Structure prediction request, 130 residues.
Amino acid sequence: MTTVRPLLMFQGRAEEAMDFYSTLFAEAEIDAIERYREGEPGRPGAIKRATFTIGDQSIMLFDSPVRHDFTFTPAISLFVECDSEDQIRWLFEQLSEEGRVFMPPESYGFSRLFTWVADRFGVAWQLNLS
Prediction:
């Protein structure tokens, strides 16, 4: 069976991001962490490969051993169906802190309440309450 999952590439902040996301969602779970060892291309102790799950979505992440001049783009985002207005507003506050707001929480006609933000790591999130 083919498996497709998002892969988030960081430059030294993968563990910080994964820990942050895991505090935001009650059903989040860190599944596996593999770290770079001495002599490998990445900084020893940094995330070589990790997976965590939010709801039914598995997400991979790692710290790139290669420095690059690009980061995340809002053209790709994690879309979250929220259970309540309280949840969407709380997630908005947490994710937008030190981040960027593309669309503040409002009713845009296609949903009762919707917001789109990039968090402090640059990862884009769309939060929706149908």
